[in-house]
Amino acid sequence: EPEVTQTPSHQVTQMGQEVILRCVPISNHLYFYWYRQILGQKVEFLVSFYNNEISEKSEIFDDQFSVERPDGSNFTLKIRSTKLEDSAMYFCASSEQGLAGIKDTQYFGPGTRLTVL
Amino acid sequence: QKEVEQNSGPLSVPEGAIASLNCTYSDRVSQSFFWYRQYSGKSPELIMSIYSNGDKEDGRFTAQLNKASQYVSLLIRDSQPSDSATYLCAVISGGYNKLIFGAGTRLAVHP
């Protein structure tokens, strides 16, 4: 069964460093997402991406964050200058269509645990 | 602010019993509703989606939706210890498919 994959599974970085989290969405999916979950808290939406553009972003997704689809398979989340509060699980998800009102399902990758020291 | 509310639990049920998980949402125009299961340290795993009022059954799981009451529920029949996890209710409210998650209900099924 097709699945979303993410690398690395765990990333440890020093505050102020840049990190890139990588995702390979399901191959025929057109919409891609990043969510994060701080330990013990809700899963929170960060950004959605379609046709090489950001479709929607949350207020969490400030100028320190960026997303990119550098080739036909990868989808990346970059945090330019990490802060302690960026420590969280970051989940990538993908869906086939991504349009509201159409029955569509987001499938999540296993996540990257980011630890900022 | 669009909200999804769940009782955090833990909900403790004996093996073989029915577990009933509830969720309310604030945005009346919400169109799509999902239940995900999350084991500790793992990613959300889709269990059920529901789009229309009424019941939807899939194996031991039944999702129920009442849009007038802005209420979604999940019933798990014949609960097993392997069902012990946090169950996340998620809602999409128009626009692009941004999932809004509740905080989750922790279910513990004891032998």
What does the secondary structure layout of this molecule look like, with pairings?
The complex is a heterodimer of chains A (117) and B (111).
Chain A: E1 5-7, E2 10-13, E3 19-24, E4 31-37, E5 43-50, E6 53-57, E7 65-68, E8 75-79, E9 88-95, E10 107-108, E11 112-116
Parallel strand pairs in A: 2-11
Antiparallel strand pairs in A: 1-3, 3-8, 4-5, 4-9, 5-6, 7-8, 9-10, 9-11
Chain B: E1 4-5, E2 11-14, E3 19-25, E4 32-38, E5 45-50, E6 54-58, E7 61-66, E8 71-76, E9 85-92, E10 99-101, E11 105-110
Parallel strand pairs in B: 2-11
Antiparallel strand pairs in B: 1-3, 3-8, 4-5, 4-9, 6-7, 7-8, 9-10, 9-11
How do you describe this structure in short?
The complex is a heterodimer of chains A (117) and B (111). Chain A has no helices and 11 strands. Chain A has 117 residues and is mainly beta.
| Overall residue-averaged pLDDT value of chain A | 92
Outline type of chain B = globular
The chain-level mean pLDDT of chain B equals 93
Our measurement of the CA-to-CA distance between the termini of chain B, rounded to an integer number of angstroms, reads 40 Å
Greatest interface by residues involved:
A-B, 30 and 26 residues
What is the 3D form of chain A?
A: globular
Helix fraction of chain A by DSSP (H/I, runs of at least 4): under 10%
Number of strands of chain B: 11
| Count of DSSP-assigned helices of chain B | 0
Rg from Cα of chain B: 13 Å
Query: Any low-confidence stretches of chain B, pLDDT <50, length ≥5?
Result: none
Please give the number of β-strands of chain A. Answer: 11
Helix fraction of chain B by DSSP (H/I, runs of at least 4): under 10%
Could you state the order of secondary-structure elements of chain A as H and E? EEEEEEEEEEE
Q: Tally the helices of chain A: what do you get?
A: 0
Main sheet summary of chain A: 7 strands, mixed
Main pleated-sheet profile of chain B: 6 strands, mixed
